[in-house]
Amino acid sequence: MSLDDDLNQLDQQQALLTDVLAQMLQNRWVGDLPTVEADLLALDPALQLAPRPPTPISQAPQPPAPGVQWNPSEPMPRQSASWTCSACSLAWVERSTGKNPGADEWSAVAEIGQPENINPTYGLMDGSGSQLQRVLKDSYALNSMHGWLNYDEVWTAVAHTTGMMSGGAWYHWVALRGQSGGDLWIANSAPGYKGVYDVLSREAFNALGPFSVVLLVP
Amino acid sequence: MTEIPSTDEQDARITQLQQQQALLTQALAAALNGQWVGAPPSVEAFLYAIDPSLQGTLTLDPPYVP
Q1: What are the pLDDT digits (tens) for A80-120?
Q2: B contact test, residue of A25, A43, A55 with most B CBs within 10 A
Q3: In chain A, which residues fall in CATH 3.90.70.10?
Q4: Among A152, A214, B4, B46, which residue carries the largest CB count within 10 Å?
């Protein structure tokens, strides 16, 4: 074999190695030409390969979308007044989201605005929860949505977020911890009121509704 | 072993192969460092240094480096 033959062989090998780089950059690792595997076998047909190609950047795991974070086990003290269930629920959301760890019934009453928005005569004046949403947004930069939701909508939503809700036939606000099997797990400042403690079944939901629901959104 | 004198052309080819070998080594180091694309020192940059005609011809989808 002459020096020219040696150089030709080296040129061919160099070209294959260069092509290996090009295929690696293009996520062509295994299979027929053009791939890294095919180039390597062309360089050395005796190679025994067990390819485990890397994950390409086009299939990289996506970072989780920023969602609502809350502690569903945050305690709910019993309300000390008959008209402050909405304030207790709001304070629970503030604590469970970590936005205001010191929130309580009366700090929330002040935030909602007594007597114009909440008072001993009527409780929360606007049953849509608009004042609760205002506090969440203005004081804690928490976005929320409101809706008159059915049971399935609430049950599905609380797998991913928290919030508050009030039943029209219940006349009572509670906060939403999450799901409890097929039931709703609630933070109830008046446990036992109308027979409901910390779990609300579909039947109870339908009996105590319709429900005005405020849910945090990312 | 008998040493055969090389021609100027052969010397030039050996020099080019040595340069390509050095670039290839750096490209493999860049790969090991997870620097696949972009400005030097990256695999992409060293590849174009080895073969400038590849610029603009590749559909890049490099390995994901967490």
Answers
A1: 999 999 999 999 999 999 999 999 999 999 999 999 999 99
A2: A25
A3: 85-216
A4: A214
